[in-house]
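Pipeline run #58 for the internal structure catalog. This entry was flagged by the ingest filter as a single-chain record with no existing model, so it goes straight to prediction. Upstream metadata was stripped on purpose; only the residue string is passed forward. Reviewer on rotation: M.T. Logging verbosity set to normal.
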Amino acid sequence: MPDPLEVLKYVHEEPALLEPVTPDADPDARRREDRSDLPDGVSVPLDELLDTRDVYRGYLAGTNHTDDEVGLTSLRSPDAYVPPLLDALGRSWWARCTGQDTVEELGPDAVRRVLCAPTHTTLLVTADTPVAAERITAVAGRAPRRGAEALRTLLNDAPVVFFPEPAHDGHDWSVFSAHPMRDRLVTAFRAHPAPETRRFILPYQQARSESKFYFDEWQLTASPLPDYIEEV
């Protein structure tokens, strides 16, 4: 197979325990060295520490090998991920929170634009019915593990919550859900072929090191892929 022009990776952890004091809670394997524990003097309520409810999380990343750019939104073909995301995870109502802590309801075209370029977006949510603005702003702008209880509360109303993540070029998307996402996304990817994009699904535990996260930089043509990496 020729070298790929574009590569999309979906890293999943299902289920994932949303623990606010665990450094490994950040699904972005590329920035593990930047993670730190909670600041001195910050305590976590006991009921939050003992909460064992599971969430489901994923991380969407991409590499545009043609232009040597790294980041999901750097892909030349957003159809490789936008229609599958809308089909698999989207509900009838969408909203985003901006950097000014303002909640904006989004129509279908606006949702697509935000997924392609989340500038000025701190949080993107989708639900069956409108969600109270204060539920959204309580989570926006905070790392998931630092606002774990607020995120759990939001997931009760908005089953899927997207966090834009800065990439080397553009953005990736971190996703939290009240329900499993992996199988739904795999089905949606297969229903929306993307000939110029190779798309891979892999578990978080096998993608935590930088070399494994960036396997497409060196491993696609050098050797067979490990069994835990699935191409769809």
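catalog note: The two ends are 15 Å apart (CA to CA).
catalog note: The longest helix spans residues 148-157.
status: ready for reviewer M.T.
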